[in-house]
Amino acid sequence: MTEPLLSVENLQTRFYTEEGVVRAVDGVSFDVYEGEIVGLVGESGAGKSVATTSIMRLVEEPGEIVGGRVEFKGEPIVDIVEDGGKRRRSDEMLSNREMRTRIRGREIAIIFQDPMEALNPVFTVGSQLREFIEINRDVSKQEAKETAIEMLHEVGIPEPESRYDSYPHQFSGGMRQRVLIAMALSCEPSLIIADEPTTALDVTVEGQILDLVDDLQAKYDTSFIWVTHDMGVVAEVCDRVNVMYLGEIIEQAPVDDLFYETKHPYTEALLRSIPRPDQRVDELEPITGVMPEAIDPPSGCRFHTRCPEAREVCPRVEPAYQEVADGHHVSCVKYEDVGYDESPPLDTEATNAFAASGMLDEEAETDGGSR
Ligand SMILES: Nc1ncnc2c1ncn2[C@@H]1O[C@H](COP(=O)(O)OP(=O)(O)OP(=O)(O)O)[C@@H](O)[C@H]1O
C-alpha cells in the first residue's frame, strides 16, 4: 500500500484550566490516504475539533499539544518527544513559519461550521477570496481575481462576475459555505479539513453542499477529514470513519463495515440515535446519559458509564485498540480475552434500559449467546 498523505500517531492535546487538566485528545491515531474522505464522528465534546486544530497546529492557550507525531507527506508537522523526563518539540518538527507559509492554506485548508466567522462582513466576498489567493499562490492581483471568479463559478455561485462584489450578508448560508469551499480549494491543497461545514444548514441545502463536495473531490482528488456528529452525513460522504469518544478513537472502519458490521456499543448507540429511511422517528433512541467530563474520565473503558452492554469487567480493564477484521479497529473488551462473557452486567441506567428493551434476548438469539 502507498504511504498515507497524513499520518496521526498517538496525538495528545490538553487544556490546563482552573478546574483541572482537560485531556481533550488522548492518544489519537489515524491515517488519511490520497483522495480519501475520512470521517471523524462523535458527540459534542468528543475532541473532534481539538484533534483537527492540533493537526493544523492552531491550538491556543490554555491548550497544548503534549504528545504524538503527525506526518504530512512524510514531514513531521507535529513531533513531540520525551527528553530527560521533559517534553519538547523534536528538531525535525516544522517551524511555525513553515506551517504558516508552506502548509496552512496551501497544502492543508480548513472549512469551518460558521462561514460568518471566516468571512469579514465589511469586505466583499470577491475581495476576500482574491486576497487569499494572492497571498497563498504568489500571483498578481489580476490573476487572483480571475481565479476567484473561476472558483465562484466552480462551486455553483450563479453570475460569479457580479456576485464577486457582494458582501457576505447578501449571500444565503449555503452560498457562504460554497464561498468557503471555493476558498479552501483555490490553492489546490492536498487535504481539506471540513469541521461540521453543513451542520448549520437546512437539510436540502446540506444535501446540495454534500453533492458539490462529492463532485469537486472527484475532480480535484483532494483528501478530506470530515468532522461531524451526524452519522447520516458520514454515510453520504465518507470512505473511512473514525468514531471518537472522550478524546479517544474507539472504532475505525471503512464506511460500509462501520454501518453493517458495527463493533463498538457506542457506534451502535450513535447509529440507533439517527433517523433512517426504514425507521419511524419515534423509534429513535437517544444515547443514555451525558458524556462525562474529559478532566476526570471514567476508569477502564471510558464509555462504560453509558454503555448498554457494560459488565463489571469494563470499569476495571482499559480496552486495547486492536484490529478485529480487515481494516476494522475497535477498543472494547468484548473482543478481548479478559473475561467479558463471564462478567455480570453492571447495574446502570443504560444497562437496565437495554435489558428492559428486550434487545439482550435478540442479541443472544442471533449470536447463539456467545461472542
Ligand atoms: N479552550 C478550551 N479550554 C478548555 N477546554 C477546552 C477548550 N477547547 C476545547 N476544550 C475541551 O476539549 C474537549 C473536546 O472539545 P472539542 O471542541 O474538540 O469537541 P468536539 O467533539 O469538536 O465537539 P463539538 O462538536 O461540540 O465541537 C471538551 O471537553 C472541551 O470542553
UniProtKB/TrEMBL annotation:
Major location (coarse): membrane
Protein's UniProt name: ABC transporter ATP-binding protein
Compartments reported by the entry: Cell membrane
InterPro entries for this protein: AAA+_ATPase, ABC_Ni/Peptide_Import, ABC_transporter-like_ATP-bd, ABC_transporter-like_CS, Oligopep_ABC_C, P-loop_NTPase
NCBIfam families to which the protein is assigned, alphabetical: oligo_HPY
Domain ABC transporter: 6-271
Membrane topology designation: Peripheral membrane protein
Gene Ontology process terms (BP): peptide transport
Pfam families per record: ABC_tran (PF00005), oligo_HPY (PF08352)
One GO term describing the cellular component: plasma membrane
CDD domains in alphabetical order: ABC_NikE_OppD_transporters (cd03257)
Sorted UniProt keywords: ATP-binding, Cell inner membrane, Cell membrane, Membrane, Nucleotide-binding, Translocase, Transport
Keyword Oxidoreductase: no
Domain of life assignment: Archaea
A GO term for molecular function: ATP binding
Membrane keyword on record: yes
Gene3D superfamilies documented for this protein: P-loop containing nucleotide triphosphate hydrolases
